[in-house]
User: What shape does this take?
Amino acid sequence: CFWEPAESLLQQPGVLSTTVGYTGAPPNKPPPTYDTVCFGNDYVEAVRVVYDDDIINYTTLLDKFFEFQKPGMSRQYSSIIFVPNNEDENVEKEEAIKWKSTAILQTKGKQQRNGDNTILPYDIVQIEPLSPFYRAEEYHQSYWKKQRGRAILAILLLAGSSGAYDDLLGGGAMERIEVVTGYSFDTICNAVFLIGAAWMILERLIVRDVRELKSGDLISEVIM
Assistant: This one.
């Protein structure tokens, strides 16, 4: 899953931006959606990172990738580092290979745990050439940050619908709200809660704003 790794990586000093998306498919595959990634066997859920190498170097970033990753059994959740695959830009590839080889040697015979205390061997990490990266649907971006806000709002609305604010606001305020809107305060809270829940479902079903990110697109966004 790319939600938590994207958030955890963004909290690291020197990491300027993270974007979740889909990549790793063979050439000539059509652009993905979350559904085709979930039910297909071509694309990988991935995180593209913009970082300041004066603050965090590539090897440290790979250490953090290993710590925060959430690999699974399917291609969708594979543990993969994507690197340039041409002679002019093979530094990252060489560093990734060296990082993996060194980590395997250093942890040979030991149980290596990642950030959530799951035992993971370094040899599960694959190194593959870069392929087109598609920015995932907007509802996937900063996912947990959005969900925490929504969860707090939902709790407040449910409290309002149960009458928890009656004493705080007083009967007069409640009556004025009903006079102005034509609805009781608890009815308004219930309605807003249901509309929000319906939108979350609809958003998942109808939003299809996946787009390919070219090299440098994220850096340009950070600079702007």
Remarks:
- Helices lie at 3-10, 34-38, 58-68, 91-106, 143-161, 166-181, 185-206, 217-223.
- The first helix runs from residue 3 to 10.
- The chain has a mean pLDDT of 86.
